[in-house]
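Troubleshooting log. The previous structure file for this entry was overwritten by mistake, so regenerating from the original sequence record. Sequence copied from the archived sheet and checked twice against the printout by T.R.
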Amino acid sequence: LMGLAGLAMGQISISHLSTYATGSYNTSAAEVVSFDPVSDRIFFVNAQLNQVVALNASNPATPTLAFTIDMSTYGGVANSITVIPGGIAVAAEAVIKTDAGKVVFFNSNGTFLSEVTVGAQPDHVAVSPNGSKVLSANEGEPNDTYSIDPEGSISIIDISGGLASLSSANVTTLGFGAYTPAMLPGVRIFGPAGTVAQHMEPEFITISDDSQKAFVACQENNAIVRIDLATNSIEQITGLGLKDHSLPGNGLDASDSPAGINIQNWPVKGVYMPDAIDAFTIGGQTYVACANEGDAREWGSYAEPRRIGNAAYVLDPTVFPNASTLKQNANLGRLNASIATGDLDNDSDYDEIHVFGSRSFTIRDANGAVVWD
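Regenerated output below.
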């Protein structure tokens, strides 16, 4: 991107125009939003009421309620929505989230058109720029007791023939059953006993401008899966590495005690773990912007995060001779670290401190290499 320095950069001015309020405070009442320029409608998911909400935005200064769709009628719980040619696609997990989910299709007036079965817990749905394929990231999270852990997967739905008659024949679901941990260096495969397919958890999808490649963030795995949409196959799974917070420019505020801003370098490494990602094209090359939120697995008796100050989080005394100082609350004591990774020699203490997210967003090339952070 450094070669773009000579290009004129346009300025964007943003100001508040209007707000539509659901009337529900401190609940997940408006999480995912998508705009249809044909019908001038804004669609969003109200998870609290398990609804898809449609707003009339023909006058964007005064959006008004057009209609709602009760997703319980279709036997699912709405997670995500996107506008597609001819209507909308809604990702809906099963009432028992470890069961197979579905993608349900409606026209822009909310009339049901069709539905197809996908993998467990479809958490995000996206459409290719050419409008021919809808993809769902089926996260496959375990149940609350971690007694059931479904496989993560990605479903590809061919909608090129229209929405009214979609069936299982239009669906290709890609799984990870053919992979072993040794085949995925740098990809975080962890948790209670289970297969690679059970541990992989696709979270968010973006598709290249030419509709040829899909990129799927697997947040807990710190990985991006690249899919060839010409063949509907996985062609690459890339571990995203670690950000060294001890290097100049990579500082972080590691504690909320005491209050105030205190950004400095620390001997910890951030696991990028992006949630939302977005593909774009510059100079004929595809790049992927990654929002490195970070997340942890906490299901049943398994809890991945542990405060560095916790006595049970033991630092290697050779690597960290100042461990007692680092563990103070004003230093790293209150920062959460992962117990799943960082013990490089398997001797029950931590040789590296791995923390969640990278306090940054990253631009990567189509192969996952960092271009800018």
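Residues 329-333 form the longest helix (5 residues). Archived copy saved in two places this time.
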